[in-house]
Amino acid sequence: MQVQKPDYQNSILNLVNSILHNYGAPHRYTTLPEADEILKKDYRHVVLLVLDGMGVSVLERFLPEESFLRSHFQKEISSVFPPTTVAATTTLESGLAPAEHGWLGWSMYFPEIQDKVNVFLNTTGSGGVIEGELLADRMMPYEKLGSQIMHACEAKAYEVSPFGDYHIDTFEELLSGVKTLCRRDEKNYLYVYWPEPDHVMHEGGCTCREAREWLKKIDRELEKLSEELSDTLLLVTADHGHIDGRNVSMENYPELRECLKCLPAVEPRALSFHLKEGMEEQFLESFKKHFGKEFLLFSREEITESQLFGEGAYHPRFQEAIGDYFAVAVGALNLFDTNEEKENIIGVHAGMTKEEMTVPLIVVEKPKK
After folding, report:
1. Which structural domains are found in the chain, ordered by start?
2. What is the average per-residue pLDDT within 47-72?
């Protein structure tokens, strides 16, 4: 597999900073020149549609060159590290690199409870449930792009997603919501998110029939939608790509587990290890023996200096979150907590391969009718 680092001069981070720049909002990172040129045309409605998991390799596998999405393909851009939904969508929603917003992956270690927490579910690695507000929201708040835009100018902003202020449950509702909002007599920005094809590829793998059906449906329906839009710029991208993985579990490596304060956090392909005192030598020996060919292993100092998570400031919780050591997958292997988990996942992401890191920038311009 080809190893590919994130490119923070040509990435989804730069794309959303172009959007902030377009609305006159402050931004901390460089913009994407191609997006800047298109946004200069001052469309009344700007729609950023994020299709979870639709990396360039997925797009090219399932759709022909003459398809709607591929015929509007502008260029390849990079995801962030790790290329996973939590880190990447938070970048798309905030305009910040993962190092700065702090939302690194599905689970994160919080020293307050000496355990890892699944950031969207509020459950702990040891099986507990944290009541009330999401712990991650409380510890790592950030201002969403829409709010930043509305503070900077008169434009309105909406989030059309299963989790957004403009709530939808089906793809049909998503299309209807975009159509409705783009007919309003106002300047607006829409952040639109849909969880496919990621969901079906996790279950069935990157070549599964369900993923092909989703890509064809999305392509067909977006073409129909575009015919009804006016004075609208539609930007389509993804949070990350996908590969098919080989899975193992921590249950089978007791000599590694006994070195750790808690199970590894972040993602099965991007893992933070928090070591018990005096266990560093055993940990290094065990990890390199079992995983040395499939993962790159960094110390806390090395991973910070690498700027893999971004080239800007670091969130106050970043150093604690990445642990004493951090492992990055460069092959197909994934390290899950349990045997049950490893049996339920086929398609994976969050490692440092070209397929996972490379996403499309698709541009559909619909001038005023």
Report:
1. 12-99+142-242+353-366 (3.40.720.10), 104-123+246-345 (3.30.1360.180)
2. 99
